């Protein structure tokens, strides 16, 4: 089963699992033919209707199992336990790095509902919110204004005046400084979390 990775440094995997992120943009590879969409779509990594595993490192899966093993369907045999899972996978590359996990073991999946191609800067305000950007209102005791933004795993909150500014900052943090400015073609994948 194919897998898809979302950035954990900026809590995007968590946003997907909460249902707050329902869209992702991926830079179109050099050499992809762009003249005829029927030909172009053949080069998309994911197709409409495809079920894709949301990659998580095995250590995170183990932690979720400890919290509530019965809540998650890990596609393991009934007699498998969290400790047996740990013993089996903790010395593998996938324990700390989700690049090396098996898609069929992932407990969470998404279904691709739409695929299109556009320039990165063509993103709409609505799509910025689908990408996981949120509007934050400060608590009543805080003497700050709200704004559009995103969190980091280190506890930081990045706020901007518009959803578009927040999206530009996030893409530069995830894909490298200057990505927004270079305005590449991107695949836009809409998806929904699969409830099992």
Characterization of this structure:
This protein has 196 residues and is α+β, with helices and mostly antiparallel strands. It has helices spanning 12-18, 37-40, 58-68, 82-89, 125-130, 163-175, 179-182, and strands spanning 3-4, 23-27, 51-54, 109-119, 134-136, 147-151, 157-160, 185-194. A five-stranded mixed beta sheet has the order 1-3-4-8-2. Strands 5-6-7 form a three-stranded antiparallel beta sheet, with helices on one face. A hairpin with a 5-residue loop joins strand 6 and strand 7 (157-160). Helix 3 (58-68) packs antiparallel against helix 4 (82-89). It is globular. The model has no long low-confidence stretch (mean pLDDT 90).
What is this structure's SSE topology?
Blueprint: E1 3-4, H1 12-18, E2 23-27, H2 37-40, E3 51-54, H3 58-68, H4 82-89, E4 109-119, H5 125-130, E5 134-136, E6 147-151, E7 157-160, H6 163-175, H7 179-182, E8 185-194
Parallel strand pairs: 1-3
Antiparallel strand pairs: 2-8, 3-4, 4-8, 5-6, 6-7
Helix pairs in contact: 3-4
